[in-house]
């Protein structure tokens, strides 16, 4: 993973790096690997993730078809 540092602004580059790592799921994976996860907990977590994924896909499909209003886009402050 690579982040460009512009105008010697290391703080901003660190923020960008952390955001990229968060999106990739690196922090979640590090936490999962730090301790043993019981097989029953793993099954429950994977099942919950699958349900969450399916609900998200169904919600996006309904938004595309016009059955649900699209989410409002947040305005970014600069």
UniProtKB/TrEMBL annotation:
Pfam families linked to this entry: Ribosomal_S21 (PF01165)
InterPro entries named among the record's database cross-references: Ribosomal_bS21, Ribosomal_bS21_sf
Any one GO molecular function term: structural constituent of ribosome
Superkingdom, natural source: Bacteria
Any one GO CC term of the record: ribonucleoprotein complex
UniProt keyword annotations, A-Z: Ribonucleoprotein, Ribosomal protein
Region annotation (Disordered) ranges: 59-78
Protein name in UniProt: Small ribosomal subunit protein bS21
Organism of this sequence: Rhizobium aethiopicum
Taxonomic classification: Bacteria, Pseudomonadati, Pseudomonadota, Alphaproteobacteria, Hyphomicrobiales
């Amino acid at each position: 993973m690579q982040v460009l540092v512009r105008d010697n602004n290391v703080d901003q580059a660190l923020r960008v790096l952390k955001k990229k790592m968060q999106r990739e799921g690196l922090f979640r994976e590090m936490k999962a690997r730090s301790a043993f996860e019981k097989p029953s907990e793993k099954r429950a977590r994977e099942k919950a993730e699958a349900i969450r994924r399916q609900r998200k896909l169904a919600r996006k499909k309904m938004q595309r078809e016009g059955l649900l209003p699209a989410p409002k886009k947040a305005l970014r402050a600069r």
